[in-house]
Specification:
By secondary structure, this protein is of the alpha+beta class. It is built from 5 helices and 7 strands. The strands form 2 sheets. Strands 1, 2, 5 and 6 form a 4-stranded antiparallel sheet that branches. Strands 3-4-7 form a 3-stranded mixed sheet, with helices on one face.
Amino acid sequence: METNNLKQDKQTTPHTDKSRFGLMAVLKRVPLSIWLKLTFVVLIVSIVVYLISSIKTVVTTTNTTVPDVVKNEKIDVTPTVIRSIEQIGEWSFLEINDEELVDTVRRGIFSNDELVRIYYGTLRLGINLKDAKEGWLSMSGDTLVAKLPPVRLLDNDFIDETRTRSFIASGKWSSVDRKEMYDRAVQKMRQRCLTKKNYATAQLNAKEQFGQMLRSMGFEKTRVEIGNK
C-alpha cells in the first residue's frame, strides 16, 4: 500500500510543476506597459480610498453649529440724515389755481377809457425746511418726532404774467396803471385762496406726506407736528 502511495505522489508532482511553470510563462508574456497601467490604477484607487476616509473624518469632527446673525434695523438720526432732509428745501403740499378779472375806468369829458384784464396764478402752500429750528428732528423713545415750520405761501410772485390777457382795452394806459391793476389781482387771489380751510388741508397733506417719507427711510414709528404761524 505504501508503495502504491509513493507511486501516486510521484505521478502527481510533475503535473503541479508543469501548471506552475505554465502560469509563469503566461505572466512573462504580459507586456511591461500593461504592468505599468495596472500599477497606476492600483495607486489611484488607493489615493481615492484615502481621500474618502479623510473627508469622513473631517465631516465627523467639524462643528456644524451656525452662529446667530442679529440684524440691526435701527436707523440713527445723525446730522447727515438731518441735512439730507433739509436739502429738500421748499415742499409744496397744496397748489391752488386761480384767475381774477380786474377792470379800471378813466372818465373823460367826451368818453371814458376802460381796461379789463384777466390774471392767472398758482398759489403754493407748503413749508421750507430751511426755516426749521435746531433740533426739529429727534427721537422720543422709539418714535421719530419731526417738528416742521409753519405752512405758508411759498412764493409771493404767483401770478403768471405771460398768461395775462386784456379783455377790453380802450384808450392809453401807462405802466403805472397796469401795475396798480396787477396789485389788485394779487390781493384778490390772496383773499380767495389763502383761507383757513386751504391752510388746514395743506397741513394735513404735510403730516401724511412727510410721515410717509420718514417711514420709507426705515423709521417705523413717526409723529409729525406743524408749527403755528
